[in-house]
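Risk register update: the risk of archive-format incompatibility is retired. Evidence:
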Amino acid sequence: MSNQIFPPITPGIRVCLTGKSSVEIANYFALEPVPLEEADVALFIVSAVEGIDSPSQELWQSARELYIPSLVLITEITNGEIDFDDMSAIAGRLLDPLLTPYLVLHDDSGFPMALIDLVTLGLSEYLDGKRLERDSDPEHKLLVFEFRKEHLEKIEEFGENSFIQGLSFPAIPFIPENNLGSYEIATYLNRLPGRG
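Archived output:
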């Protein structure tokens, strides 16, 4: 992808994808899907419109038994009915409790356009096909104070490498139209050791 705004995925990472639009998401990130038993990581795509299908829930249980690192990608959050936070909470009840390392900020029309990192409080704006990083505004820091406190407590409880160990499960918003979440997803995938 010529206008790619996320870092290249480490070569050799084997990814299992399940859920709505999994083929499109595999193509977006140039991933070659493999069965769960062969995977280094699993991506569970959860639509905020349609929720989680039964096959994905069953695959989730298998991934837990195998301790396969798992990311939950929350998609279709642009219609405004169910937002990222709501769908993360629903998915957390149907699967396992999820970590939300980023919160979504919206533009004046309500369209998701930025993510605030709950660890660094950095802001990633996804505008005009680009990703711009900057420090969050004072009102953003105030807005996310309680969320950040809760997130840092969960990181302390699970440990820094809990994602890689298959013990904690980040939920990341993903909107291919403006690339929101793509950099963050790629960053998580690149934490895993490649196979060359």
